[in-house]
Amino acid sequence: MTFADTHTHIYLSDFENDREQMIERAVHAGVKACLLPAIDRSEHTNLLNLCQKYPTFCFPMMGLHPCSVKENYKEELNEVYSLLTTRKFYGIGEIGLDFYWDKTFVEEQKEAFFTQLEWASHFKLPVSIHSRNALDDCIQIVKYFPKGTLSGVFHCFAGNERQAKEITEYGFYLGIGGVATYKNAGLDATLKHIAPGFLVLETDAPYLTPVPFRGKRNEPAYLKYVAEKIAMIKNITVEEVAEITTRNAQKIFGI
Ligand SMILES: [Zn+2]
User: Fold this and answer.
1) Global model pTM greater than 0.90
2) Cα 179 to middle of ligand 1, angstroms
3) pLDDT at 130
4) Which residue of 91, 100, 157, 211 could cross-link 126, Cys pair, CB 3.0 to 4.6 Å?
Protein backbone atom coordinates (compact mmCIF):
# COMPACT_ATOMS: atom_id res chain seq x y z
CA MET A 1 0.00 0.00 0.00
CA THR A 2 1.55 3.31 -1.06
CA PHE A 3 0.52 6.90 -0.39
CA ALA A 4 1.39 10.29 -1.84
CA ASP A 5 1.25 13.38 0.37
CA THR A 6 0.26 16.06 -2.14
CA HIS A 7 0.68 19.02 0.20
CA THR A 8 3.16 19.06 3.05
CA HIS A 9 5.55 21.61 4.56
CA ILE A 10 8.15 19.27 6.05
CA TYR A 11 10.92 21.78 5.27
CA LEU A 12 9.68 24.06 8.10
CA SER A 13 11.62 24.42 11.35
CA ASP A 14 8.94 22.41 13.18
CA PHE A 15 10.86 19.35 11.96
CA GLU A 16 14.41 20.57 12.51
CA ASN A 17 15.11 18.20 15.42
CA ASP A 18 13.84 14.95 13.93
CA ARG A 19 13.42 15.46 10.19
CA GLU A 20 15.29 12.29 9.17
CA GLN A 21 13.35 10.10 11.60
CA MET A 22 10.08 11.74 10.53
CA ILE A 23 10.86 10.89 6.88
CA GLU A 24 11.78 7.32 7.90
CA ARG A 25 8.41 7.01 9.65
CA ALA A 26 6.69 8.27 6.50
CA VAL A 27 8.50 5.75 4.28
CA HIS A 28 7.70 3.00 6.78
CA ALA A 29 4.00 4.01 6.66
CA GLY A 30 3.98 3.60 2.86
CA VAL A 31 4.40 7.23 1.81
CA LYS A 32 6.23 7.19 -1.52
CA ALA A 33 6.22 10.88 -2.40
CA CYS A 34 5.70 14.31 -0.85
CA LEU A 35 4.78 17.43 -2.80
CA LEU A 36 6.20 20.50 -1.10
CA PRO A 37 4.31 23.77 -1.67
CA ALA A 38 6.23 27.02 -1.22
CA ILE A 39 5.18 29.88 1.06
CA ASP A 40 7.46 32.85 0.37
CA ARG A 41 11.16 33.80 -0.01
CA SER A 42 11.91 33.17 3.67
CA GLU A 43 11.47 29.40 3.11
CA HIS A 44 12.65 28.83 -0.48
CA THR A 45 16.15 27.77 0.54
CA ASN A 46 14.89 25.27 3.12
CA LEU A 47 12.40 23.84 0.63
CA LEU A 48 14.92 23.46 -2.20
CA ASN A 49 17.63 22.03 0.06
CA LEU A 50 15.29 19.33 1.33
CA CYS A 51 14.27 18.38 -2.22
CA GLN A 52 17.93 18.19 -3.17
CA LYS A 53 18.62 15.87 -0.24
CA TYR A 54 15.67 13.56 -1.03
CA PRO A 55 15.25 13.90 -4.82
CA THR A 56 13.08 10.79 -5.19
CA PHE A 57 10.88 11.54 -2.19
CA CYS A 58 10.42 15.33 -2.00
CA PHE A 59 9.12 17.21 -5.04
CA PRO A 60 9.16 21.02 -5.00
CA MET A 61 6.40 23.41 -5.99
CA MET A 62 6.89 27.14 -6.31
CA GLY A 63 4.43 29.95 -5.59
CA LEU A 64 3.45 32.80 -3.29
CA HIS A 65 1.08 31.89 -0.44
CA PRO A 66 -1.90 34.28 -0.13
CA CYS A 67 -1.03 35.02 3.53
CA SER A 68 2.38 36.25 2.32
CA VAL A 69 0.85 38.76 -0.10
CA LYS A 70 1.87 42.04 1.57
CA GLU A 71 3.34 45.40 0.50
CA ASN A 72 6.28 43.65 -1.19
CA TYR A 73 4.25 41.06 -3.11
CA LYS A 74 5.63 42.17 -6.49
CA GLU A 75 9.18 41.37 -5.40
CA GLU A 76 7.98 38.02 -4.08
CA LEU A 77 6.27 37.27 -7.39
CA ASN A 78 9.40 38.23 -9.34
CA GLU A 79 11.36 35.68 -7.34
CA VAL A 80 8.74 32.99 -7.98
CA TYR A 81 8.82 33.69 -11.71
CA SER A 82 12.58 33.73 -11.88
CA LEU A 83 12.79 30.36 -10.07
CA LEU A 84 10.11 28.89 -12.36
CA THR A 85 12.23 29.76 -15.38
CA THR A 86 15.48 28.38 -13.99
CA ARG A 87 14.68 24.97 -12.52
CA LYS A 88 12.21 22.11 -12.48
CA PHE A 89 9.09 22.38 -10.33
CA TYR A 90 6.19 19.94 -10.12
CA GLY A 91 3.50 22.53 -9.58
CA ILE A 92 2.68 26.13 -8.72
CA GLY A 93 1.64 26.49 -5.11
CA GLU A 94 0.52 27.25 -2.77
CA ILE A 95 -1.53 30.04 -4.29
CA GLY A 96 -5.04 31.34 -3.71
CA LEU A 97 -7.04 33.56 -1.39
CA ASP A 98 -7.21 33.78 2.39
CA PHE A 99 -9.77 36.21 3.82
CA TYR A 100 -9.70 34.63 7.27
CA TRP A 101 -6.58 36.09 8.82
CA ASP A 102 -6.35 39.49 7.17
CA LYS A 103 -8.39 41.35 4.56
CA THR A 104 -5.96 44.25 4.08
CA PHE A 105 -4.59 42.90 0.81
CA VAL A 106 -7.66 41.34 -0.79
CA GLU A 107 -7.13 43.01 -4.17
CA GLU A 108 -3.42 42.21 -4.17
CA GLN A 109 -4.21 38.59 -3.24
CA LYS A 110 -6.57 38.35 -6.21
CA GLU A 111 -4.00 39.84 -8.55
CA ALA A 112 -1.22 37.54 -7.29
CA PHE A 113 -3.50 34.52 -7.61
CA PHE A 114 -4.54 35.40 -11.15
CA THR A 115 -0.96 36.09 -12.23
CA GLN A 116 0.24 32.75 -10.88
CA LEU A 117 -2.64 30.92 -12.59
CA GLU A 118 -1.49 32.53 -15.85
CA TRP A 119 2.00 31.19 -15.22
CA ALA A 120 0.56 27.74 -14.49
CA SER A 121 -1.24 27.82 -17.81
CA HIS A 122 1.89 29.09 -19.59
CA PHE A 123 4.30 26.57 -18.05
CA LYS A 124 1.66 23.78 -18.13
CA LEU A 125 2.08 23.12 -14.42
CA PRO A 126 -0.63 21.96 -12.00
CA VAL A 127 -1.58 24.26 -9.13
CA SER A 128 -2.15 23.71 -5.42
CA ILE A 129 -4.87 26.15 -4.34
CA HIS A 130 -5.27 27.47 -0.81
CA SER A 131 -8.63 29.02 0.03
CA ARG A 132 -9.91 30.11 3.40
CA ASN A 133 -13.22 31.96 3.71
CA ALA A 134 -12.83 32.47 -0.02
CA LEU A 135 -13.74 29.25 -1.82
CA ASP A 136 -16.33 30.74 -4.17
CA ASP A 137 -13.98 33.62 -5.05
CA CYS A 138 -11.23 31.10 -5.81
CA ILE A 139 -13.53 29.00 -8.00
CA GLN A 140 -14.66 32.11 -9.87
CA ILE A 141 -11.09 33.22 -10.62
CA VAL A 142 -10.00 29.73 -11.71
CA LYS A 143 -13.03 29.50 -14.01
CA TYR A 144 -11.90 32.63 -15.83
CA PHE A 145 -9.54 30.19 -17.55
CA PRO A 146 -11.30 27.89 -20.03
CA LYS A 147 -11.71 24.30 -18.86
CA GLY A 148 -8.66 22.26 -19.80
CA THR A 149 -6.14 25.12 -19.62
CA LEU A 150 -5.46 24.57 -15.90
CA SER A 151 -5.10 21.50 -13.73
CA GLY A 152 -4.54 20.88 -10.06
CA VAL A 153 -5.90 20.53 -6.58
CA PHE A 154 -8.06 22.56 -4.24
CA HIS A 155 -5.91 21.82 -1.23
CA CYS A 156 -7.52 21.22 2.17
CA PHE A 157 -10.95 21.15 0.59
CA ALA A 158 -13.64 21.87 3.17
CA GLY A 159 -16.51 23.07 1.01
CA ASN A 160 -20.02 21.81 0.35
CA GLU A 161 -21.38 19.43 -2.26
CA ARG A 162 -22.17 22.18 -4.79
CA GLN A 163 -18.61 23.54 -4.56
CA ALA A 164 -17.12 20.04 -4.80
CA LYS A 165 -19.15 19.35 -7.95
CA GLU A 166 -18.16 22.67 -9.53
CA ILE A 167 -14.48 21.95 -8.90
CA THR A 168 -14.50 18.35 -10.10
CA GLU A 169 -16.60 19.15 -13.18
CA TYR A 170 -14.02 21.78 -14.09
CA GLY A 171 -11.41 19.00 -13.98
CA PHE A 172 -9.73 19.73 -10.66
CA TYR A 173 -9.16 17.41 -7.72
CA LEU A 174 -9.96 17.80 -4.02
CA GLY A 175 -7.10 17.57 -1.52
CA ILE A 176 -8.36 15.76 1.59
CA GLY A 177 -6.49 15.90 4.89
CA GLY A 178 -6.98 15.82 8.64
CA VAL A 179 -10.16 17.94 8.50
CA ALA A 180 -11.99 14.87 7.16
CA THR A 181 -11.45 13.22 10.56
CA TYR A 182 -12.84 16.17 12.56
CA LYS A 183 -16.30 15.43 13.92
CA ASN A 184 -17.90 18.83 13.38
CA ALA A 185 -16.32 19.74 10.05
CA GLY A 186 -19.17 18.12 8.07
CA LEU A 187 -16.79 17.07 5.31
CA ASP A 188 -17.94 13.42 5.47
CA ALA A 189 -21.41 14.44 4.28
CA THR A 190 -19.88 16.14 1.22
CA LEU A 191 -17.46 13.30 0.49
CA LYS A 192 -20.34 10.82 0.33
CA HIS A 193 -21.31 12.45 -2.98
CA ILE A 194 -17.82 12.63 -4.52
CA ALA A 195 -16.16 9.72 -6.33
CA PRO A 196 -12.70 8.75 -5.00
CA GLY A 197 -11.39 9.32 -8.52
CA PHE A 198 -11.48 13.05 -7.73
CA LEU A 199 -9.56 12.85 -4.45
CA VAL A 200 -5.92 13.12 -3.42
CA LEU A 201 -4.49 12.80 0.08
CA GLU A 202 -2.50 15.46 1.91
CA THR A 203 -1.38 16.28 5.43
CA ASP A 204 -0.53 20.02 5.22
CA ALA A 205 2.02 19.06 7.91
CA PRO A 206 2.83 20.42 10.44
CA TYR A 207 -0.79 21.69 10.50
CA LEU A 208 -4.26 20.09 10.51
CA THR A 209 -3.31 16.88 12.28
CA PRO A 210 -5.87 14.08 11.89
CA VAL A 211 -7.61 12.36 14.77
CA PRO A 212 -6.26 10.60 16.91
CA PHE A 213 -3.30 13.02 17.01
CA ARG A 214 -5.30 16.23 16.59
CA GLY A 215 -3.61 19.10 18.45
CA LYS A 216 -0.11 17.65 17.98
CA ARG A 217 2.34 18.28 15.15
CA ASN A 218 1.25 16.65 11.89
CA GLU A 219 3.55 14.54 9.66
CA PRO A 220 3.20 12.52 6.43
CA ALA A 221 3.13 9.17 8.29
CA TYR A 222 -0.36 10.17 9.53
CA LEU A 223 -1.76 10.06 6.00
CA LYS A 224 -3.16 6.60 6.73
CA TYR A 225 -5.66 8.04 9.24
CA VAL A 226 -7.08 10.23 6.49
CA ALA A 227 -7.16 7.27 4.11
CA GLU A 228 -8.95 5.15 6.72
CA LYS A 229 -11.59 7.84 7.20
CA ILE A 230 -12.19 8.15 3.45
CA ALA A 231 -12.42 4.36 3.17
CA MET A 232 -15.07 4.37 5.88
CA ILE A 233 -17.08 7.18 4.27
CA LYS A 234 -16.90 5.66 0.77
CA ASN A 235 -17.34 2.09 1.99
CA ILE A 236 -14.22 0.87 0.17
CA THR A 237 -10.93 -0.55 1.49
CA VAL A 238 -7.97 1.54 2.63
CA GLU A 239 -5.95 -0.22 -0.08
CA GLU A 240 -8.37 1.08 -2.71
CA VAL A 241 -8.15 4.61 -1.31
CA ALA A 242 -4.35 4.41 -1.37
CA GLU A 243 -4.25 3.06 -4.90
CA ILE A 244 -6.74 5.54 -6.39
CA THR A 245 -5.39 8.66 -4.66
CA THR A 246 -1.76 7.77 -5.40
CA ARG A 247 -2.60 7.23 -9.06
CA ASN A 248 -4.39 10.60 -9.10
CA ALA A 249 -1.37 12.32 -7.57
CA GLN A 250 0.97 10.76 -10.14
CA LYS A 251 -1.30 11.86 -12.96
CA ILE A 252 -1.67 15.43 -11.71
CA PHE A 253 1.93 16.18 -10.73
CA GLY A 254 3.81 13.86 -13.11
CA ILE A 255 5.78 12.18 -10.33
ZN1 LIG B 1 -0.07 24.53 3.03
Assistant:
1) yes
2) 13
3) 98
4) 91
